[in-house]
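Worked example 3 (structure in, sequence out).
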């Protein structure tokens, strides 16, 4: 047998192995997200069993079957889709405004010591103000319509993004900055070629934190003066004595909040492939 035949035979024998390995990798990638469903699914099954067995009457905390039926009824009436779209639109608008403002403020204060000493104490004091305390002021300024709600969400998103960006810039390795100065990089080049890649992992975490607070602040915004949205569903369920509707709205918040967080993680993944960081055992 010639060397060429040996090579071809080896390649053919390796094909099934490579194919099997690829199939296992695909199954593993699909199974990883499913692991995160184990805890909530197990809790739902246990609570359903507790209600059906008579350990609880399920009046104040309805079982998953009742919550699912509530979802179906709201979806058939078109209410669920309408409230989800309204709340998601408010969070998206407030998140965009808060991210832009927080990124700019964090970059400026992180890069300039003078600006940091000038602005950071005031911003830290404003950060300590509870979200609900802003509501009366924003209602007076912007009315009870969308502007006040979006502004409140933007405030909630702003502070974690601002802190994340400023802290990430301040923690950049001093040697990297010195290398940029040795090569006489301009301020813009220093930001683009050194600071931005160095702060990107922390920036993604700041975005996720800001998004989480955005979903929290939208509840405060919709609890006062809203006629649409998942927060309105919470109030409607409370006033009409419908605990299933309240829990359904909470579950909807959890689902779309997790989906939005997952979108950020997926969108940022291509920009973080260069990162050589510790990863937990898979």
């Amino acid at each position: 047998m010639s060397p060429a035949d040996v090579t071809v035979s080896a390649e053919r024998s390796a094909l099934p192995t490579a194919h099997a390995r690829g199939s296992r990798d695909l199954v593993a990638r699909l199974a990883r997200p499913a692991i995160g469903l184990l805890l909530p699914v197990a809790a739902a099954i246990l609570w359903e069993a507790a209600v059906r067995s008579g350990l609880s009457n399920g009046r104040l905390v309805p079982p998953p079957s009742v919550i699912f039926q509530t979802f179906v009824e709201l979806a058939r009436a078109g209410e669920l889709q309408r409230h989800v779209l309204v709340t998601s639109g408010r969070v998206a608008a407030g998140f965009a405004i808060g991210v832009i403002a927080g990124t700019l403020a964090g970059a400026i204060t992180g890069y300039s010591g003078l600006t940091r000493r000038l602005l950071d104490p005031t911003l830290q004091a404003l950060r300590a103000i509870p979200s609900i305390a802003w509501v009366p002021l924003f209602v007076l300024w912007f009315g009870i319509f969308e502007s006040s709600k979006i502004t409140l969400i933007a405030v909630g998103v702003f502070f974690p993004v601002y802190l994340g960006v400023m802290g990430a810039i301040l923690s950049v390795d001093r040697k990297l900055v010195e290398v940029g100065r040795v090569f006489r990089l301009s301020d813009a080049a220093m930001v683009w070629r050194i600071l931005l890649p160095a702060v990107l992992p922390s920036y993604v975490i700041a975005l996720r934190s800001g998004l989480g607070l955005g979903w929290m602040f939208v509840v405060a915004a919709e609890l006062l003066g809203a006629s649409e949205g998942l927060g309105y569903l919470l109030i409607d369920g409370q006033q009409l004595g419908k605990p299933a509707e309240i829990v359904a709205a909470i579950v909807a918040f959890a689902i779309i909040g997790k989906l939005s967080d997952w979108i950020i993680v997926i969108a940022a993944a291509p920009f973080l492939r260069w990162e050589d960081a510790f990863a937990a055992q898979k």
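Notes: The radius of gyration is 25 Å. The chain has a mean pLDDT of 82.
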